[in-house]
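Entry:
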Amino acid sequence: MSRMAALRLLLGVVSAALFTIMIWLGETRIAPLVPNGDLLQAQVFGYDTHRLVSFMSALKGNPAEATYKAILQWLDAGFITTYAAFVFVMLWPHRRLALTLALLYAGLDLAENISLLQALAAIPQSTGTSPPASGTWSLTGVITALKYATLLTIALTVIWRWTKARHI
């Protein structure tokens, strides 16, 4: 096995393990506490401000709030780093494309995390007020949708590179 293949394998396994841990923690510790049991980061098409405020309000003051913060600050940051590196080495022959996609994904996912943490911190200030009306798209929801669009682009690019390398 070449060094590049070993690096791909290592980064792929580490990012998959971190992703699995995040899913497990989200589904067992966070989802049971929030409306409809839906995690915001799993909403492929984003979410509106009402859903964001409802989600954060359900977590605020609960011991799961610390778990959610740890997921965003540590586990997801580790995942973002290893996944972006994995994308870069998977698309290595196309360095500019690889770097562009890896940095775009990392930037969007980190922006999403920062926005979610800011929303969670802002909840005490909005306590006692009604959540915004449904249908008002939150910036965080738009970032989440863009993140998924980037993930789809990465998947298609990796498939394109794989088929091109095998002359399929």
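The CA atoms of residues 12 and 86 lie 6 Å apart.
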